[in-house]
Amino acid sequence: MGIREQAREKVEILARWLGIRRARCYKQCFLGEDGVKPSIEGERVLADLRQFARIGRASFPIAVDGNMRMDPIKLARIEGRREVVWRILEHINLDEAAIQTFVEVMENED
After folding, report:
1. How many structural domains are present in the chain?
2. Rounded Cα gap, residues 95 and 55, in angstroms
3. How far apart (Å, rounded) are the C-alpha atoms in residues 75 and 97?
4. Is 95 left (phi over 0), alpha (psi -120 to 50) or beta?
5. pLDDT single digits (tens) 45-60
6. Which domain holds residue 73?
7. pLDDT tens across 54-89, in order?
């Protein structure tokens, strides 16, 4: 194995280690003590983020201008929000269906 291959292998190992470490940090923020299910606070934050990012809803009503044309800036903002929420869900191993129940619980509490 040459020097380049060794360097590439070390970079890949470091990237995996950093990804695992990052995922652990996300899990500590959102999941309960069991490390599997979200804490109550985590559920509330994820439900709020789901609504804020319009996960599971169309972008169209928000991303149009006064002339009923798509506004690329508004659309990009919504898509950016979604990307952040999906990143969080990926790191804590949840899917959209899981956080839908949190939204329903929050709506019933209000």
Report:
1. 1
2. 11
3. 23
4. beta
5. 988 998 899 888 777 6
6. 3-109
7. 888 777 666 677 777 777 888 888 899 999 998 998
- Take residue 87 and report the two structure tokens written for it: 């990143």
* Alpha carbon distance 81, 63 (integer Å): 13
Beta-carbon count within 10 A of 100 CB = 14
3-state secondary structure 22-40: HHHHHHHHHECCCCCCECH
Distances (CA, A) of 42 to 17, 25, 29, 38: 25, 13, 7, 5
| Three-class HEC string of 38-89 | ECHHHHHHHHHHHHHCCCCCCCCCCCECCCCCECHHHHHHHHHHHHHHHHHH
- CA 2 from chain center: how many Å? 39
